[in-house]
Specification:
Strand order of the largest sheet: 2-1-3-4-5-6-9-10
Helix content: 10-25%
Distance between the termini: 39 Å
CATH architecture of the largest domain: 3-Layer(aba) Sandwich
CATH superfamily of the largest domain: L-asparaginase, N-terminal domain
Strand content: 15-25%
Structural class: alpha/beta
CATH class of the largest domain: Alpha Beta
Bound molecules: aspartic acid
């Protein structure tokens, strides 16, 4: 554990890390988002006496994450980062949409201090609860001098926000950084960073609408055997502004779906191709009719497209 005399703020948003089950052997039949963030901190003896401040920003199962919580979380994170007495911010979150929230916060805030997101694959009541160690590791990273950017820590592995993904449905080391590899590790309270801390230009909080229904509507469609253009045409009818296709392989799209996506693009909808492979990037070619989303997962590509639609002139 790093020594820090400066405050670390722990923001709670719910998730399995705050989940409870009736049976300690039950790791799937639990309810997420039951315990407050103060209770999560109190459950880790090694955190006692550290200059921590807790704030409950939301209490949700992150499968239900939405724009209102994103707006509030970005605002509260920015608020605490601006304080001179704060070394960094830790965010407890569900694993399901963690890669989306992490990516959003990195692009909007590009923080010069560490914002360390953590989560758990087992509820707090489990015999094998992973939340307490993950929370301790996250606080440790938040206290590392010189650390910066939005980071994700689970199972002793440190990831940068861009490129991190949930890659397993059940294992406690459920997260991967794909081709980039993890940023580092946290072992017995010692942080080793193998790569540079994330950097970037902050888009700025002012672009995120206060009202959830003022955010652009961007949907994800998947290419697969027997795909049709029906969902794309329905999306266009309701006025969708962007579409991300989770394409097969290196961005290939079923001919019937591609025809509908090209129609959508002609109507002014922004359409990007990502891959449903789970690893690798969509390699762009000069004659691509639908632009590549690069190495972003379909869910992160959707976040990036939302941000680009919100900040057309940036
Ligand atoms: N459904 C939970 C959530 O994302 C899963 C988890 O946290 O592991 O909140």
């Amino acid at each position: 554990m790093q020594n820090t005399s400066r405050t670390i703020v722990v923001l709670g948003t719910g998730g399995t890390i705050a989940g409870t089950a009736a049976d300690a052997a039950d790791n799937v039949g639990y309810t997420a988002a039951q315990l407050g963030v103060e209770a999560l901190v109190k459950a880790v003896p090694a955190l006692a006496g550290l200059p921590l401040e807790c704030e409950q920003v939301a209490q949700a199962d992150s499968k239900d994450m939405g724009f209102a919580v994103w707006r509030a979380l970005a605002q509260r994170t920015a608020h605490h980062l601006a304080r001179d007495d704060v070394a960094g911010v830790v965010i407890t979150h569900g694993t399901d949409t963690l890669e989306e929230t992490a990516y959003l916060l990195q692009r909007v805030l590009a923080p010069a201090k560490p914002v360390v997101m953590t989560a758990a694959m087992r509820p707090a009541t489990s015999m094998q609860a992973d939340g307490p160690q993950n929370l301790l590791d996250a606080v440790t990273v938040a206290g590392v001098p010189g650390a910066q950017g939005v980071l994700v820590v689970l199972a002793g592995t440190l990831h940068a926000a861009a490129g991190v993904r949930k890659a397993h449905t059940y294992r406690v080391d459920a997260f991967s950084s794909s081709d980039a590899g993890p940023l580092g590790v946290v072992e017995e309270g010692a942080v080793t960073a193998w790569r540079a801390w994330p950097q970037g230009e902050a888009l700025g909080l002012q672009w995120l609408p206060m009202e959830a229904d003022a955010w652009p509507q961007v949907e994800i469609v998947t290419s697969h055997a027997g795909a049709s253009g029906a969902l794309v045409r329905a999306a266009c009818e309701i006025g969708v502004q962007g579409l991300v296709v989770a394409a097969t392989g290196n961005g290939t799209v079923h001919a019937a779906l591609e025809a509908a996506l090209l129609e959508a693009q002609d109507q002014g909808v922004t359409v990007w191709r990502s891959s449903r492979c789970g690893n690798g990037r969509v390699l762009a070619r000069p004659d691509d009719m639908l632009p590549s989303a690069g190495a972003l997962t379909p869910a992160q590509a959707r976040v990036e497209l939302i941000l680009q639609l919100l900040t057309p002139s940036v």
